[in-house]
Design brief:
3 domains, alpha+beta, 323 residues
Length: 323
Amino acid sequence: MSGAAQRTKKQCYIKKIYEKLSTVNQVILVDLMNVGSNQVQQIRKLLVAKGADLVIGKNTILKKAVSLRSKELDKNMEDYEYYAQFGAPKPQLEALAAQLKGKVGLIFTDEPVFEIKPIIESNKVETAAKIGTVSPVQVVVPPGPTGLDPSQISFFHALHISTKIQKAQIEILSEFVVLNKGQTVGNSEAALLQKLNIKPFLYGMEILRVYDDGAILDAEVVSQSPEDLLKKFSSHVSNLAALSMKLGFANQLSVPHMISNAFKNVAALSLASGYKISALDNLKATAAAAPAVATTTAVKEEAPKKVEEEEEEDVDMGGLFDF
């Protein structure tokens, strides 16, 4: 590709990002480390169906587009009219520029993150442990036959792995931790996992952070669904109400419980002393009326069934003695 063609392609790319930054307020930053091009293409197709756009490029180009959108335009610059149509600068985008580090991609979408997250993390590939990489998980080899011939048992002894020869193959006697989370893969660990044909790592696209109109939010915060937030809110409300009740502190959460408990005490005292109160009499009347209404309704529902059963029996008997 010639220098002019490459420059034109770069300008088009910056224009695309500039336009996205002008029309979308939310940008999801995703980690592309150890993610293959085939994975990226598959995820991109799924995102397009949700109206989201995945943009991947060099951080220098991404930063240039973000910086251009966050500052006042130079009227003498090339393509000024194109950029000017998107309105005033958005200085809050400087917060996004600071996040463009490492191998990252940008997903432009105003859809809730908890709806986009399953798509982003849907495509994961099993990968072998390569020397020098950092293990993202703990890797444990389970006990059992390995399928390896006895001539290789010295390799296991060097790693202090308990083994025995069973049916002409090496068998591991107890589970063995090959790698801990955060540990760098060495020659021995990589060789062992390769011999056992174990690919311990699942690599795929993951959410790092989310830019939302000037704010940088952690992935854990924005990935929660309304149901998750409601459960946490309800739990905190219950805890606060219990604490307020224990301390005798009256507020909107504790007062309803205080009134309820006070009424229970008054009702218990009324029943024990025989002193009648109107509220308790009304409650007794309501409780007594409820079973009566339920019984009447049940009788009305069962009556037609009995008639039908009797009619069926009469028909059956008539058929039996009709010669």
